[in-house]
Please model this.
Amino acid sequence: VADEAAREKCDLIVSHHPLMFQAIQRITDDTPEGRTLLTLMRHDVAVYSPHTAFDSAEAGINQGLAEKLGLRNIAPLRRSEAADATGLGSGRYGRLAAPLTLAEFCDRVTSLLPCGRAPFVGDPSRKIETVAIACGAAAEFLRDAVALGCDVLLTGEARFHAALEARALGIALVLAGHYATERPGVEDLAVVLARQFPTLTVWASRDERDPLSW
Model:
């Protein structure tokens, strides 16, 4: 994306994930991170990365996923202690308009999100009515989903032990892929920014791809 921005002479990248997750001591071209930072600096490209604020915002990634799946009565999966401009809380949950089996729910997920498959935990014939959503790698919301009576948690990825925990807790778990659960939010954001700032040229990166293939 940095290369795309430099090539297209962009002024700003709005990214979901921040480039740096840990402090760095040196910026050199010896590392992929360093090369990316140097590209941005050489071409005077600014970067803004809202990350978890974008996940949880009132019209953020999880809200968009819930609406895309046709959920009703959507609410935060884990409420924030003090609602503010960044959102109402983490994750979302809501009810399907009509029950689906877990297998049918997985089919809906793969038809709506850019994923080639959706591995799952649970009986394929299980009835799904209440759905919890947490984009990215968010299996830590399993117990929140159970407490709210959800039948399934849809997230991007989870560790093996989280899959075992889901089975033990009696909740289904669907893993649609980290990229697949977050890319739609970026595409929606590009539309919103273009609408709110009509003098700007805004687009969702054309070069970004899921690093995983199936």
